[in-house]
């Protein structure tokens, strides 16, 4: 900080000196302006520098320098005072720190003594509590043993009651199961009997339908059969016909029989093209492939 102030003071003095030199050496004369008249010009005398102003300026510079020196001295005194005050403050802080450490040491010592006393009291209290706890533990052990014995007796009785109850329930369930099995068997027999009756009736119905449609197919074949008494009378032919659900003939297989009758029967079948079939799927399933014997009628 002192160095910066000295540099500022030196710059101020230098500027003032330069200003004074400029005032002494400066040219304060001015040249006359030309006039439009041809009249001869008279010479203009130079204006002299006002020495009183220069002296006044120099005086101001000196006064400024004296003021700067005074300010510098005051600043140095302030810095010295600040250093002195700072040293005092540092010493005061050191003294306070010593007092704090002393009090802290005294407090630690007091705390240590108090801690020892507290530890002794705690140990005595712990011993007392230990004895009380041991007594309570013994009393509790006796009470627990008694409670355990009573609980075991109660659980044994409960277990025996539960065993008897489960045995009775098991016997009851076995009886129910036997009765249910008897009823289920009886019901199954009744259902089987009824199902057999229904299947028998249905089978009879299907066979009746098959017989009826077989007769219709034979009639259709006979109706389209071209006969010749001399070659066919007393003759027959066994055929196997494959049918589509619509009754359309998909195949004809010739079996045992008179070749003439067989050939005429096959021709009659294909001439008909479509043979009567049942719309009942179960009946048609039995008629999908049907075997019959053709006997010409005369």
Quick summary:
The chain is mostly helical and 298 residues long. It has helices spanning 2-25, 51-224, 229-232, 259-272, 281-287, and strands at residues 237-243, 249-257, 289-294. It has 5 helices and 3 strands, in the order αααββααβ.
Overall description:
The protein is mainly α. It has a domain at about 225-295: Fusion Protein Consisting Of Minor Coat Protein, Glycine Rich Linker, Tola, And A His Tag, Chain: A, Domain 2. About 75% of the residues lie in helices and about 5% in strands. The protein has 5 helices and 3 strands, in the order αααββααβ. The chain has helices spanning about 1-25, 50-225, 230, 260-270, 280-285, and strands at about 235-245, 250-255, 290-295. The chain has a 3-stranded antiparallel sheet. Strand 1 and strand 2 (about 250-255) form a beta hairpin. Helix 1 (about 1-25) crosses helix 2 and helix 2 (about 50-225) crosses helix 4. The longest helix is centred in the middle third of the chain and has 174 residues, at about 50-225. The termini are far apart. The relative contact order is 0.05. Residues about 25-50 have low confidence and may be disordered.
């Amino acid at each position: 900080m002192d160095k910066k102030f000295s540099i500022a003071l030196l710059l101020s003095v230098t500027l003032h000196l330069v200003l004074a030199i400029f005032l002494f050496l400066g040219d304060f004369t001015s040249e006359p302006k030309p006039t439009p008249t041809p009249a001869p010009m008279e010479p203009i005398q130079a204006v002299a520098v006002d020495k009183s102003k220069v002296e006044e300026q120099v005086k101001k510079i000196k006064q400024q320098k004296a003021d700067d020196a005074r300010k510098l001295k005051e600043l140095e005194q302030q810095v010295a005072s600040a250093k002195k005050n700072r040293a005092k403050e540092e010493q005061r802080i050191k003294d306070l720190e010593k007092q704090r450490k002393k009090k802290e040491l005294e407090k630690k010592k007091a705390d240590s003594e108090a801690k020892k006393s507290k530890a002794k009291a705690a140990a005595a209290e712990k011993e007392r509590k230990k004895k009380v706890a041991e007594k309570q533990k013994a009393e509790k052990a006796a009470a627990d043993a008694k409670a355990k014995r009573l609980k075991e007796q109660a659980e044994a009785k409960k277990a025996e009651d539960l065993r008897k109850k489960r045995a009775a329930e098991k016997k009851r369930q076995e009886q129910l199961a036997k009765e249910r099995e008897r009823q289920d068997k009886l019901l199954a027999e009744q259902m089987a009997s009824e199902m057999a009756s229904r299947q028998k009736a249905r089978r009879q119905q299907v066979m009746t339908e098959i017989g009826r449609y077989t007769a219709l197919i034979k009639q259709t074949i006979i109706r389209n059969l071209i006969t010749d008494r001399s070659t066919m009378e007393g003759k027959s032919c066994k055929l196997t016909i494959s049918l589509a659900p619509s009754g359309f003939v998909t195949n004809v297989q010739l079996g045992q029989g008179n070749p003439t009758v067989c050939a005429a029967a096959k021709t009659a079948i294909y001439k008909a093209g479509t043979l009567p079939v049942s719309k009942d799927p179960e009946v048609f399933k039995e008629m999908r492939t049907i075997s019959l014997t053709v006997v010409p009628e005369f």
